[in-house]
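Task 17 of the worksheet. Students: predict the tertiary structure of the chain below and write it out as structure tokens. Keep your answer in the requested format; marks are given for formatting as well as content.
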Amino acid sequence: MRAFLIFITLACAGMAAQAQLPGTLSVQSARGLPALLARAVPRDPQVIAAQAALAATEARYKQARSRLFPTAGLQATRGRSNDLDGTQEVERRTHQVEASVRWNVYNGGADRAELDAAEREMAGAAFDVERARAESAEKLAEAYFDMQRLERGLQQSQERLRDVTQLVRQVARQAELGKSSEVDRELAQSSQLDAELVHDGLLTDQQAARIKLEALAFEPVAQFADFAFAPLPAQALENADTQQAQLRAARERAAAARLRVRGVAATLAPKIDLNVSHLLNNKTTPPPSTIQQRGWSVGVSWEIPLGGGSLAQRDESISRAQAAEADVARAEQGTRADLASMLPRIANARRTLDLLDEQEKKMAFVVRGGTIQYEAGRRNLQQVIQTRDSYFTLQQRRIDQLHRLTLAQMRQYALAGQLLRVFGLAQEAK
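Model answer:
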């Protein structure tokens, strides 16, 4: 009767423990991973550098746009000269102020091409900021999930250490009563030492993981909330090419490189400048016989480097465009390959996790039954210790498998360009 009651008690405790195992929870607290990412990602140096690069491309775009507008100038002249006025030599003092406007009205479309290219580069830099934010979030989330894995492992290790310590006391009492041998006492103590070694190793790994996590998060992290990734819709996988920030940035840079490729005629075309001037003030003494008060002129210049510099610049722009296109193709190929490999990996991880869940339930029943049989004298101590060690190893495998599944799902979201959205960090396009 006593053995039956012990069995029922252990069974109920096991069911409660199974109910508390980390599962696919989707409810996030204010202290969970998304809130931590929202605070940490903007402070990441990688993100700050990408935002600075975006500001630089915006400034370059403004510079390119300014080339389409005229340039105003103001020139003040003061001097003295000896001039020959007719047959008389005079000493002339010049004091005058002149305003001018210069406008390059045609240069073969170079300014327009540079403006369009700068606009595409600015869009690519914006996607680089998004890529930096996604990489920062993934890096921090990986450290967060690793910390969760170690926390779960430590919980199971603590339970194992408690059970082994209880077993050592039980064997010691039996040895004192002459029901167990000294060999059994040494065996139980050896098992306790093994549990302590494993627990100390997990504690060390946890401390190292905490240091890394807090360094990435720029703040202490004391509480952890489970985060689950829902299966990614098939439509999101199909649209990965149009959503992934790295690919979009590469395409924008390739488009900018293509826009800088100009035809031979445009490369060798002349430049046409319009110049307008107006004399604002003139105190030249003695005054010259003629003074231009205002005027305008149109100048046409055609410069052809005899060494072939213009055509060489065009060849350079063609080569840069080809290199940018190759970068796009390489990025697309890598993304498609990684996404394709994620599907069977995630499916296998889910299937393995389900099998481990079922195996853990069966092994928990074996452990409980083995304990009852040991107390009834139907199992020896070596069998009980081996069963409990196997159960602990199985628990650690399940925790590791859940961790691998989580990382694989996160990588899939990142490759599909959906990671920031699932973390609640997506920003509206300007």
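Marker's comment: Residues 12 and 18 are 10 Å apart (CA to CA). The first strand starts at residue 71 and ends at 85.
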